[in-house]
Specification:
Elements: H1 3-19, E1 27-32, H2 37-52, E2 57-65, H3 73-82, E3 87-90, H4 93-100, H5 107-124, E4 129-131, H6 136-150, E5 159-162, E6 167-170, H7 178-187, H8 204-218, H9 222-232
Parallel strand pairs: 1-2, 1-4, 2-3, 4-6
Antiparallel strand pairs: 5-6
């Protein structure tokens, strides 16, 4: 662990957890681990907090095998070295999306199926919270996706209760940018698994990323401004008082 940069990013994560009441003592938290840099960085951060912070909780990393023969062995080794109870749930999601339904725009259906499988697995493991690796850039991109494609000014919440399942979805990295998350993954040499999805890199979200990147080049502080808007506008999209 490189102490020269650990303090500030952990502080931001702890602030998000406290601001939105994400973690309470005794929580059993499932961590969705796709194998990408965002989710493995989330697992790394939560494991650090579990070891070194005042938060008292247990974490249960979960990966979904979608039918693409993904090699999760690097994640498995990481979890084994850290003493974490890693679980890989086998599914037929890839077959359903690409072979049975033959979706031209597969991402929405795949996302819904993955969400359902992750939630079911979390409940099976006795967890009542699911931690997701979304960061500030994801929130900004979701805002633009909703604005451009549905005409709504909205994004996901840092802490959301799902009535149907009784689960809480928490996003501890919402105060971190994509650049920060990538830097942590690189500096700590975290095990990143290649995404085998045939639709990878061809999504609407990828198009929106280009928009956000363009805006950041023109307005370098735009991500900070979005975070301020999410938290402190007259009708904030993220209101800790609503938790």
């Amino acid at each position: 662990m490189r102490r020269n940069y650990s303090k500030w990013f952990l502080t931001k994560v702890k602030h998000a957890i406290i601001d939105f009441k994400m973690i309470q003592d005794g929580d059993k938290i499932a961590v969705g681990v796709s194998g990408g840099k965002d989710s493995i960085t989330l697992l790394f951060i939560l494991n650090l907090l579990k070891k070194w912070s005042n938060f008292k909780f247990d974490i249960y990393p979960i990966s979904l095998e979608l039918g693409f023969n993904t090699d999760f062995s690097p994640v498995e080794q990481f979890c084994r070295e850290e003493g974490l109870p890693y679980h890989v749930e086998k599914t037929d999601i890839g077959k359903i999306v690409f072979d049975i339904r033959k979706e031209k725009n597969p991402c929405a259906l795949c996302s819904n199926l993955r969400r359902g499988a992750l939630h079911e697995t979390a409940i099976k493991l006795g967890c009542r919270k699911v931690a997701l690796g979304h960061h500030l850039d994801d929130a900004i991109e979701t805002f633009f996706l909703n604005l451009f494609y549905t005409g709504q000014m909205s994004t996901f919440k840092p802490n959301t209760f799902l009535d149907r399942t009784g689960l809480w979805l928490i996003r501890p990295m919402v105060y971190l940018t994509r650049e920060t998350v990538s830097a942590i993954a690189k500096a700590e040499n975290l095990p990143v698994v290649q995404n085998p999805c045939p639709a990878s890199g061809k999504t609407k979200r990828e198009d929106i990323k280009e928009v956000v990147n363009y805006l950041q080049k023109r307005y370098p502080k735009i991500k900070e401004r979005f975070l301020t808007a999410f938290l402190k506008s007259e009708s904030p999209l993220w209101d800790p008082k609503q938790i």
